[in-house]
Amino acid sequence: MSALTKLFGLIKQKSPLWLMTSLLLASAGAGAVDQQTQQQRLKFSAAEQAFSVGRLTEYRQLAGELTDYPLYPYLRYQRLRKNLAPAKYGEVKQFLREYGHLPVANRLRDQWLHQLAQRRQWRRFAAAYRPTASVKLQCHYYRSLLETGDRKAAWQGAEKLWLHGRSQPRACDQLFNSWRHSNDFNADRVWQRLQLSLDRANTSLARYLVSLLPKSEQPIGTRLIQVHRKPESVASCDLWQQADLATVAAHGIRRLARQNPAQASQLWQTRQRHLQLNQAEQLKTLSRLGLELALDGTNTAGDFLDALPPAALDDTLAEWRMRWALGQGHWDQLLRWYPQLNKTPRNSSRWRYWQSQALQATGRQSQADSLLTSLATERDYYGFLAADQLNLPYSFQQRPIPATADQLAELETQPTIARIIELRHFGRETDARREWRDYIDGQPAAGKALVAKLAQQWQWHHMAVLTAAAAKSWHDLDLRFPVVYGDLIAKQAAVQKLPPALVLGLVRRESLFDPEARSAVGARGLMQLMPATARKVAHSRQERRFATRKLYQPALNLRYGTHYLRQMIDKYQGDKVLALAAYNGGPRNVKRWLKNRSNVSAALWIEMITYGETREYVQAVLSYAIIYRQLAGGPPQRLAQLAPAVNQLMSVTPEAGGLLKAGVTDQCHFTGSQVATK
Hints:
By secondary structure, the chain is mainly alpha-helical. The protein has helices at residues 3-14, 22-26, 35-52, 56-64, 72-81, 89-99, 103-118, 122-128, 135-147, 151-162, 173-180, 187-199, 203-212, 218-229, 238-241, 246-259, 261-271, 279-296, 302-306, 315-328, 331-337, 343-347, 349-361, 365-375, 381-390, 405-411, 415-425, 429-441, 445-457, 461-470, 477-480, 486-495, 500-511, 531-540, 554-571, 576-585, 587-596, 602-607, 612-632, 639-642. The chain has 40 helices and no strands. The model is unreliable at 1-8, 10-31, 649-664 and 673-678 (pLDDT under 50).
């Protein structure tokens, strides 16, 4: 029997019965359900139905028989949220007292607060308010403080909400208008928000903010927006010759650095001494220039990057400075910069691995081997790279979380867990997840780990994985790397001639096997397909009647997702690294990354991907594929087999960037009085 056959066999053995209805999957909480619970479920459904059609007497009778049912608070919530008239305020307050610890109480409180604000009952609002992520309610809260006499706290809240680069809800308008006419407000606040709005590319808000500046300062604000929109105009001499335009010039340099780092650094190095900037503006500009030069791979940027003051080095810039040295092969520079990383990145397997490569390249083999030997004991991408170099077996460190049947059964008797079981029985996944997250937030690490095992027992796999991560329980591999929809994955992997472990790793990374997953940008389902991509796949397969909602169907999503992955692998002539990078970051970006660097090892090419999400994605999927292969019991697979080298097609020699050297003549003329005092 081949290794692939064995892997398919194990996948089918481990996979849940995916053809079961979602309701049956959702009800997989406790084992057998007693007769009382079955009757309560029927009454709960009947009570909701009676309320929805206005049979209130029947509803009250049924609700009265369900006071000991776990979802009784949800019945009361459904009734109260439909009628938040002043006559019901007493009942609302009683509900919040009784069930204030439940997520459903937060929903009712928020709805009540919105109504209190609409009715301008500010004293009640201030008393009922609790911290919330809702900006609209935050605005109402600080207005309630203003209306009830606490102006100091109101202005502090107004400032916090004001200093944001996005337009805030209309609920903030009255608060902001009152604050702007107080002695607490001044033009500095406008300038701060103006800069924040431009940092968020919100030019419409920026134009409004310019109108709030004193008349004498509005031309400077207008010029700032103009330079923001046309960064190349920062070369204009007057920006560097007029003291009141210094911050405009610095902003223009930061903007230009995104488009043309070499040109921006030329201007900065020849003219910055003429600007009178505060330290914060200088550091901000140096940091942006350094980051863009490192991202661009400008080959003469070493001296500039080396001279950056420590205060300009945030984690992002410090790591990209390391990548610049890595891409240039400047191993001594990399070793010199390594100690300047903050503790967390410095101790990461990523930078310990590249430190070992630098030591190796500079002839310190024994130190390199010592680092690699330590790294090879870790179960991650860099640990696998280290093991490959030393020809050592991979370290998987499989240690299941200890949990007995009695412990899990006891957990199911907890009130919160009992509610979650009932919510899942009725397919109310959102409410169940809210309750789950609220429950684990209050648990110690050991408690979280035990609850993760309960979720695994329920086949609630995505929540099991997330809970294990919250517990920092990394070594229960069967829990963290479940095989879900295994028969569907095996079938589509065979159709598309893909390694099943690679598809499992991709689905694990994309959605944690949650078929209802949806990303912030609109990717949907198990393999997180964008509707436009799925539509093209459907067209290429000559499948008509495609609808976006179908992407939540596991079978269709896996069919289209594996088809698209196969297309990417074929596009890059079998190179899985490029295919995965394209799957996540798009073929256009892969073309750009190849233009900057090709004919290199897969490890180096991946490290130089400029999108952090895509870089982590490729490394994770490759690592997960290795782990799934191990769990399948087949012959071990090495990273070098999955990703031997980056495809050398589309290879383009990078253009050499350059920094303007000191002493180059500048066409602008400056007087001695314009030179900043350091």
